[in-house]
Amino acid sequence: MTARAIDPTLDLTLQRVIRASPDAIWRAWTDPSELERWWVPAPTQARAEQLDVRPGGGFVTSMRDDDGEFLPHTDGIFLVVEPAQRLVFTNAVTSSWRPANPSPVPMTAEIILGEHPEGTDYRVIVRHADPASRDRHEELGFFDGWGSVTAALAELVESDARPRGADPSGLSAG
């Protein structure tokens, strides 16, 4: 894995420990039915239209509120696929390999799954072409949006990792 420097004038980052294995998180990112359960903030619903998890493969999702129709959400491609370690995608190129001008901002997102004694060190780096795009993304709620979907991802994979009947707090009665 090649580490890329983070530039705080261009990049937004998020990091947390998720109490599940990197494999479980990888499945949640790469299995369409799992991705649909956490990819957009609740109560909005997501649909994975294309999830071709390989370099150059399409990443297309749609979303809807309530019982409305599904509207386009993500249309991009995967750039780097390192199973259970790293996933990089961009919306600056569409799934049909055409240059894009996505709304609200073009970006490249890098998801890094590192080992941690309590599960997985989950890191997100979202890279932007210029400070204005980075600032716009932050102003539009990057931390709330990516934070809420990361929390939903964690809830999904952590609940799957707990033994049945276990206390969700991780505490045991003694």
What descriptors fit this protein?
disordered C terminus; about 170 residues; alpha+beta
Q: Reading side by side through the largest sheet, how are the strands ordered?
A: 1-7-6-5-4-3-2
Fraction in beta strands: 25-35%
User: H/E order of the elements?
Assistant: EHHEEEEEEHH
Radius of gyration: 16 Å
Number of DSSP strand runs = 7
Helix fraction by DSSP (H/I, runs of at least 4): 10-25%
Termini, distance in Å?
43 Å
Q: DSSP helix count?
A: 4
Shape: globular
Largest sheet: 7 strands, antiparallel
Describe the structure in your own words:
The chain is of the alpha+beta class. The model is unreliable at about 165-174 (pLDDT under 50). It is globular and about 40 Å long. Helix content is about 25%, strand content about 35%. It has 4 helices and 7 strands.
List the helices and strands and how they pair.
Layout: E1 11-18, H1 22-30, H2 32-35, E2 45-51, E3 58-64, E4 71-82, E5 86-90, E6 108-116, E7 119-127, H3 131-139, H4 142-161
Antiparallel strand pairs: 1-7, 2-3, 3-4, 4-5, 5-6, 6-7
Can you describe this structure in just a few lines?
With 174 residues, the chain is of the alpha+beta class. The protein has helices at residues 22-30, 32-35, 131-139, 142-161, and strands at 11-18, 45-51, 58-64, 71-82, 86-90, 108-116, 119-127. It contains four helices and seven strands; from the N terminus they run βααββββββαα.
